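FIELD: query
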Amino acid sequence: MLDYQTFKSGTDIRGVASDEDGRAVNLTDPAVENIAAGFARWLMEKTGRTQGLRVSVGHDSRISAGRLKGAVTRGLIAAGIDVLDCGLSSTPAMFMTTVPEAEGGAGTDGAVQITASHHPFDRNGLKFFTPDGGLDGPDIARILDYAARRDEMGGVATLSGKGQVQPLAFMPRYAALLRRIIARGVGKTEESLPLSGFHIVVDAGNGAGGFYATQVLAPLGADISGSQFLEPDGYFPNHIPNPENETAMQSVCTATRLAGADLGVIFDTDVDRAGCVDRQGHEINRNRLVALAAAIALEDCPGGTIVTDSITSSGLKSFIEKELGGVHYRYRRGYRNVINKAMELEDQGMSAPLAIETSGHAALKENYFLDDGAYLITKIIIKLARLRAEGKDLEDLIGGLPEPVEAAEVRFAIKEADFKTYGEQVIAALEQFAAGVEGWQIADDNREGVRVSVEDGRGWFLLRLSVHDPIMPMNLESDRAGGVRDMAAALLPFFQQFDGLDTAPLDKLL
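FIELD: result
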């Protein structure tokens, strides 16, 4: 019997959907049909309705997209749900189908996006939305439980009846919404070509993001020459569509320099993450991207709280609080974690205009707290245009960000079967060990793993446990040359006492 809970990956569903790389397929047609029917049952319970429900279905460029879309559709219509087939779509656009038509959406009751983000071409998965936003982990667990029950019953429909399927060309509607936002943001009409004179390079990594160049930027007058990999290709032949990937970032940096562009843009496969490149070809990514997004968000929300993941730098905290006058709230890794925390702070009466991960997931309160790479880039382009009118550029906005001299990440593999319990024991032991080292101080604002400041804040390291995998990542940063190596040398004897850890990555750093 298939264990459906193994498909759960945080707030997503992930699995192997193609055997072209030699892996056994577990996202089979029957499994996906059952999961879709499980979502149908969950949605009926949430809405209190069993009839008249509409769900939009979209997908990124992966090679298994067509097959999985067919299975999702069959599972939904078997439950009596009408399906709006959106075809190739970005993940944020699929959420936008659920908002009222007056706000640019389609007013659907739910949405399903078929994607596995930046993962290899043979993987795929599902993301679910309602008008309230993306589903959380407990919702996914319940859907998978319903899928397993349906599987036990031999695929019997959740309810008798058959929904209808019709096409919905939503991406052009979504692109039009972004064009309106840009034009309004720079104080011009679309017809006046408000981006005329701007040269912007887009790298879509052969994912779903090519529309941003051809349907958003070019119609507003931008020069998009030098853009690359705009055509959807589920094998991702040029580079991994991932702003965190070094090869991908170097590719868009080079393209931006060669084109002499004002800005370079890179999206992940399903466009819920983004990174960018300044006119010198230097990447604006990770801490620099968080700093830029925070500067933009805090303009209309002075003193607001910026929620980030745990691995942001000490320099970023200083920039947000001293340069921008905001509050920096470090939280746990995971885009839903930072989004949920920002929403929680809002409910408590605090102003939290931005939740952002260093991975490029950025969710603004003004945009439904939706992590939307295209919306983030839209806001950056508006700011670029405004700065240009003042004779300035994006670099001027984040020029005060202190950046480390050195940075590294070490990933310890856990060899124990119960990796979570073992990892928690290592973290507890490290906290006790660090407390006894002269010049080291446990950070008072960390909410994941253990973060330690070194040399009066001139350096720091953070050890945490991966959410899903038997891995313990450790990030290290220092404001002086050789600082990372010194921290690593001081930590090596501590880690060597744990036989269940592979310490080879730390040895290599030394």
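FIELD: remark
The chain has a mean pLDDT of 95.
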